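Figure caption, in words: inputs first, then the predicted bound structure.
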Amino acid sequence: MDFSLPEEINTLKERTERFIRDKILPFEGDPRQGPHGPSEELRRELLALGREAGLLTPHIGREWGGLGLDTRGMAVIFEAAGYSPLGPVALNIAAPDEANMHLLEKIAEERHKERWLLPLARGEIRSCFAMTEPPPGAGADPSLLSTTARREKDYFVIDGRKWLITGALGADLGIVMARNESDGMGPAGATMFLSPMNAEGITIERILDSLDQGFSGGHAVIRFEGLKVPESEVLGRVGEGFRYAQVRLAPARLTHCMRWLGAACRAHHVASQYARHRTAFGKPIGEHEGVGFMLADNEMDILTSRLVIWQTAWVLDQGLHARHESSLAKVICSEAIWRVVDRSMQILGGLGTTGDTIVARLFREIRPFRIYDGPNEVHRWAIARRLMRTGTH
Ligand SMILES: Cc1cc2nc3c(=O)[nH]c(=O)nc-3n(C[C@H](O)[C@H](O)[C@H](O)COP(=O)(O)OP(=O)(O)OC[C@H]3O[C@@H](n4cnc5c(N)ncnc54)[C@H](O)[C@@H]3O)c2cc1C
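Bound structure (flavin-adenine dinucleotide present):
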């Protein structure tokens, strides 16, 4: 495995870091942010800055307006962007759009790319990915998928309920996962459908009151009632939905690790500064072993996360199936990053629990990562099952 960075990635990293520091950090206190992320006006303003800096949509091919980075290049740039919660918005690499663009680039037909990928890559529209359902439907166990797609002539009729759907409010495109029966024209299974979110048959029932507050549009409960989707708007092939979900999820888990690693670095920097200057019992608190050890543990968790991301990125760049590696990376990073932010808050004392530093905000944003993109217990279970089956690691 080669750990050296190509010269152009090094230059891009420096440009991104400078851009985040000089142009994006000043927006962190902007009042146009609410419990459901930045307002549309602020989002567009940030995207305009990203565009002007030539940093927009780095993960998508140049033919669609991106920078065409490989996964290792993304690891570096996404981490730099994640230093601010607004960085991924400015670079057009925030979830769920970033992973939806990746899925479209990999699976969609040209006409779907023209219609949806192009404006997404330009930051002109937003999208959502609707898979999870309230109990007893699909959650940690996707096989419980209960939203149905019934074929009638040349279209499908979709009925069901979804929840926790990030960014649905204000999205133009919905990628909807539904279960279809075998009907002689295609196999039974799960299928992904592309639908405009303003189509008749889609109702956003409510926006959930969530712990995290950084995602544009928040997380929605959606009802699908007689939604008609033409057969031509199936993403890829009928019955292949679960396979495509893995095409989306293996890299999507890793890009969450990349962005949140940037956030963990930020929390650690804030805490280290405080530990150097704040004194207690006659010396800077960082010189007390209890605090010094927390700072050292932060350094180790950050390094471990970076190495695991890099290793998984390398596997993906070889074109290999990285389901197992992305499970390992998701668990290792989500827990290491969480520990870094938690320790940083502890080092900051009462200040850490207030809005006077960014750390409290990062603390709220990062906790759900142990649940989404597959709860960590399910990943551990999958890792253990593989070990029991193959007897190797
Ligand atoms: C902030 C956020 C954003 C999200 N965005 C989206 C989105 O855009 N689109 C979308 O479709 N979904 C989204 N989700 C949903 C997310 O993917 C699910 O929450 C996740 O898959 C878990 O499903 P569940 O919440 O139904 O948990 P449940 O299925 O109810 O599971 C509850 C708990 O049971 C435990 N558990 C389950 N199975 C096992 C097992 N085999 N072994 C041990 N323990 C187990 C785990 O601890 C798990 O956390 C989002 C969730 C959050 C929190």
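The pocket of flavin-adenine dinucleotide is lined by residues 96, 129-132, 139-140, 164-166, 212, 219, 368, 371-372, 374-375, 377-378, 381 (CB under 6 Å).
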